[in-house]
Amino acid sequence: MGKVYIVGAGPGDPELITVKALKILKIADVVIYDRLVNRDILKFTKKGCELIYVGKSREKKEMSQEDINKLIVKKAKEKNVVVRLKGGDPFIFGRVFEEMLELKKNGIEFEIVPGITSAIAAAESALIPITERTLSSSVLIVTGQEADKDKRKVDFSKINADTIIILMGVKNLELIVEELKKYKNSSTPVAIVENATLKNQRVIIGTLDNIVSIAKKEDVKPPAVIIVGDVVKLRSQLI
Ligand SMILES: C[S@@+](CC[C@H](N)C(=O)[O-])C[C@H]1O[C@@H](n2cnc3c(N)ncnc32)[C@H](O)[C@@H]1O
């Protein structure tokens, strides 16, 4: 029986992977990786390492979480070193609990290797100091994917922080902004960091009042991190 390493690949720039992750990738027999993992990272694997993509593609739908769990267990039974490679940090919206539970149930040893999350790296890469002491003493990381009116799990009216960082929020931007405007001033600055840490990174700046129309005009596409709060305005002093 092999060991499974659940590894964070970092936010995008392949150099932002940890030394520990790199060491493990070099000895991996199989790597099971997600859509947002930079493919350049896979070049660190040894010859003959099996590479299995489980994200969405033009040809096929994303594999279900259940099937991914089964695949990891199957590979752990066949190989020595199995890497489950996830974008950013595995513990930030990485559906990692299900995978750990399945491994535990099957008596398979596993270890978590943290990564740099895009939630923080995007702010750093865009020069937005999210905890600048005069403006922000709290940061909230939240998913924007479940802001759908029918199946809302994130109640934006109940959560607040000086700085709010939203992942997976591009599709629901209008809804999210509508909710945030209920308790944040509409002049509150907003930044959208698209393709953070990559060569094609874009930073789009606006306020709660105009960010939806700016994002449309700029044709903002995922992956992107949305940062809401007064700290966003500090960026203009740094660029
Ligand atoms: C399923 S979540 C996974 C987050 C990941 N575990 C992390 O720690 O970064 C995917 C979301 O992360 C954000 N994201 C990941 N990589 C990004 C990047 N390079 N630029 C901007 N946003 C990114 C986007 O909001 C995307 O929709």
Total beta strand runs: 10
**Average pLDDT, to the nearest integer?**
94
What order do the SSEs take from the amino end to the carboxyl end, as H and E?
EHEEHEHEHEEHEEHE
Number of helices: 6
Overall 3D shape: elongated
Bound molecules: S-adenosylmethionine
List segments where confidence is low: pLDDT < 50 over at least 5 consecutive residues: none
In angstroms, what is the radius of gyration?
19 Å
Number of self-contained structural domains: 2
The biggest beta sheet, please?
Answer: 5 strands, parallel
**Roughly how many Å apart are the termini?**
52 Å
Strand content: 15-25%
Widest β-sheet, arrangement of strands? 3-2-4-1-5
Assigned CATH architecture of the largest domain: 2-Layer Sandwich
CATH C-level label of the largest domain:
Alpha Beta
Structural class: alpha/beta
- Indicate the CATH topology of the largest domain: Methyltransferase, Cobalt-precorrin-4 Transmethylase, Domain 2
Specify the CATH homologous superfamily of the largest domain.
Tetrapyrrole methylase, C-terminal domain
